[in-house]
Amino acid sequence: MSGAALARPALxxxxxxxxxxxxxxxxxxxxxxxxxxxxWLVVALDGGQLxxxxxxxxxxxxxxxxxxxxxxxxxxxxxxxxxxxxxxLIGLGTLVAAETMEGGSVLTAVLAVxxxxxxxxxxxxxxxxxLKVNAFIATLGTAFILRGYIEDNYTGPAGKVTASFQRLGxxxxxxxxxxxxxxxxxAVVLWLVIRHTRLGHHMYATGGDxxxxxxxxxxxxxxxVIAHVLCSLCVGAAALFLASRLGSGAPWAGTEARYDLDxxxxxxxxxxxxxxxxxxxxxxxxxxLLLAILDSVFNQLSVDPFFKNVVRGVxxxxxxxxYARRGSRRSA
Amino acid sequence: xxxxxxxxxxxxxxxxMEGVSxxxxxxxxxxDVSLTLEAGEVHAIAGENGAxxxxxxxxxxxxxxxxxxxxxxxxxxxxxxHPSQAQAAGIGIIHQExxxxxxxxxxxxxxxxxxPTRRGFVDRRAxxxxxxxxxxxxxxxxxxxxxxxxxxxxxxxxxxxxxEIVKALASDVRVLVMDEPTAPLAEHEAxxxxxxxxxxxxxxxxxxxxxxxxxxxxxxxQRVTVLKDGRHVITARTAETxxxxxxxxxxxxxxxxxxxxxxxPGEWGDAVLTVTGGGNRRLRGIDLTLRAGEVTGVAGxxxxxxxxxARALFGAAPFTEGSMxxxxxxxxxASPRQAIRAGIALVTEDRKAEGLALRQSVRDxxxxxxxxxxxxxxxxxxxxxxxxLERVRLQARSEDQQxxxxxxxxxxxxxxxxxxxxxxxxxxxxxxxxxxxxxAKAAIHTLVRELAREGLAVLIIxxxxxxxxxxxxxxxxxxxxxxxxxxxxxxxxEDIMRxxxxxPDHSDxx
Lengths: 332, 510
What we know:
Chain A: Its main location: membrane. Chain A: It is found in: Cell membrane. Chain A: It is a multi-pass membrane protein. The complex is a heterodimer of chains A (332) and B (510). Chain A is mostly helical and 332 residues long. Chain A has one domain. Chain A contains 15 helices and two strands. In chain A, α8 crosses α9, α9 crosses α11 and α13 packs across α15. Chain B has 510 residues and is α/β, with parallel strands linked by helices. Chain B folds into three domains: 165 residues, 3-Layer(aba) Sandwich (Rossmann fold); 66 residues, no CATH class; 169 residues, P-loop containing nucleotide triphosphate hydrolases (Rossmann fold, 3-Layer(aba) Sandwich). Chain B is 32% helix and 25% strand. Chain B contains 19 helices and 22 strands. The two termini of chain B are 34 Å apart. Classes of the chains: A mainly alpha (332), B alpha/beta (510). Chains A and B meet through α1, α9 and α10 of A and α2, β8, α6, α7 and α19 of B.
C-alpha cells in the first residue's frame, strides 16, 4: 500500500463542531422566549396584561405538576421506554395523600405516596424488562389496573389534606410559588443523575442502542427499571403537589389534565427523541414552560378550546418536524 | 512473516478454549471446538458463514454460555454469563455491527459501562484525558482529527472502528476478537487497520481475527484455524500452509477459477442506460453508459461517491442535474419506484437494513418488488418463484423460512431473486458479496455473469479490488464524487488506486 493511498477522507469538522443553536434544548428555550414576548404583544394588543403578578403565579403553578411528570417522563423516554400510567398514578397518589393525612401525619402521607409510586414504577420496569412487554402496552396495562382500582373505590374527591401541607400549593416566596422550588429541586436532581452519574450515562446508552450498551457491559434491564422508578417518584411528587393544591384526594386529577400525553408532548417538544438516547431535562422544562405560556395567552384572550388545541397540536408537530429535518441533514 | 511468539517456550499460553460445544434449540452449532492463542499472536479464524466462528467468539465474549467445554485465560478457568464478566477478565470483542452509540462522544463510548467517577459523579475530564492519551498512543495517522469530544455519528465507518479499538484498549483488553473487521472498509483503510492490528499484537495483545479474506489472513496472522459446520478442521501456521489448503478446508472441495470468464467484446449489446452530465449534492459531471451484456465495475475509496452513484441511478438520492436515458427513453428517476418501473434494480450494500424484511419469509421477500410495483406487460412472477429460487441457487429449508435465519450468502441470493422477479434491464450491485462466504461468493459471481450473458446491463460496486477486477469488463474509478477514469478489463490494483486517490501522475512509467 503506497503512502498516497493512506490519504484518508477528511473529517467533517464543521459537522463535528456542533452549533449550540441547533441543540434542541437551546432551541426550545429560544422558542419559549419568543413565545413569551409574542404572547405579551398579542395580549397587550388585545388590551390585556399577560405578566401580572397573579398571572405569573398561575403560569408557574401550572408548570409545576406537568413539569414534575414530564421530568420523570424524560428519564424513561431517554432510556428507550415510556410511561402511560402517570395520569392514574397521580389520581391514586392524591387519594393516598389526602386519606393518610386525614388520620395520620404529613410525613407518613408523603412516605406512603412515594412508596406507592416507587412500587408502580418498579412494576412497570419489571414488566417491561422481565416479561419483555413493550413499554407502551405494559404501562397502558398498569394504567388500566390503577383505573380499575380507582373507579371501584371512589366516585369523587376523598380525604382531607392537612392545612399546613396545603401551603406547598399556595405559599409564595416573593413572586415565586414555593412549589416552583420543588420542581426546580427535582429537576436539578434528575439533571445531575442523567448528565453526571454512571446511571445517567447508562440510560443514554440503553436508550440509544440497547444491544450496544449490553455488549459494553451495561446492565440494561436494571437501568430501565431504575428509570421507571425515578419517573414514578416524580409522578408521586406531582401527586403530592396536586393534593396540596386541591385540598383533598381527586381521583381524576391526573386524567382530566391529561398528564400522560401532555407530559410526553412536553418531553418531545423539549427535543428528547421518543426512541430514546438523546435529549435531557433542560429541554423538557423549556417545553413545559412553552405549553404553560401558550395556555395562559389563550386564557387571557379567551380563545375557544378547539383553536387552543389546534395550536398546541401544530406547535408539537412543527417542533418535531424541525428536529427531524435537522437530524436528517446531519446524518446525510 | 514475523516469527510466532509461541516459538518462545517461556511465553505461557494466553487463552485456551477446550472442547467447546453449543446448541441452539437442539441444533448443534459448535462441536467440541478447541483453540489456543498466545500473547502477541494474531490468530485468524476462517470458515464459511454458518461455520460457527461467530458463535465461538460469542461464547468467548460471554454472550452465550457454552453447553460444554472450558475457557482458560492465563491458566484460570472462566465461565462467563454476561459480557461484562468477559470484559472484566480482559476479553474484548469488536463485532461486525459496531457496539457504538452514535449520538454520544468518543470518550462516552470508550468508557461506556466503566465510567470513572469522582465523588459519585462521572469524571468526564478523566475520561477525555485518557481517551486523548490512547488516541495519541495509536499514532498521528490514526488519531488525525479525532478528539474525545467528537460525536461518533460524525465519523465515517473506518474511524468508528478506531473508536471500537480504543474502547478495547481502555479496558486493558488482553484478548481482542475482531469479527471481519475489514468487511466494511476500502482497501487503503484495510491497510491502515492491518498496521494497527500489528501494533496491538506487538504490545502483547492476543488477537483472534475472523476473516473471509484469505490474502489478509496470510499477511497478518501467524496461525489460521478453519471451522466448518461447527467443527474444527485445521489449525496451521500461515508460513507452512497456502491459500489452496485453507480454501479446501473451508469449503471441503477445490475451488476452480474464482471468477467466471468475461464477455467477449462482441457480446455487448446496445446501450441500455446512459447518463450525461449527471450530478447532485455528492456527484459531479457523471457521464456513463451501461450496455446490455456488459459488467461494469466501479471502484473508489470510501466516500468517493460509489454508493451515491448507485443511489442516483436508482432514484433513491436522485440526480439533480444532467440527463439520463433508460432503454432509449429519456428518464431521470426521482424515486426508486420510477426506477423500478423503468427496469432498474439495486442490490444495496446493507442487506439487513435495506435489502430484506428479515422476519418475513423467503417467499414474501422474493415477491416484495413485484407485489409493490406491478408492471404492465410483464407476467407476475409468483408462479415462477420456485424456478427463480433454483435459478439463484438458494439453499433454504423452505420458501416459508424467515430470511433472518439464512446465511449471508443465501440472504443475498434472496435479494437477487427479488429483483430478478421484476425482470430488470439494469442490475446495480453495491458490494454484492459483502459478508458472504467463499462458496456463495463464487455462486453469486457466476450468476451475475450469466445474467449479463442474457442481456442485462450490470454495474458492480465493490471495495474489494479483486472482485471489481475479476468480474468487470471495464472498471470505472470514482474519486471525490466524479468518475476519475476508466480502465479496461484486467486493470491492476495499482492503476485503480492511483486514480482513486487522485494521483494519476504518480505513475512512473507511461
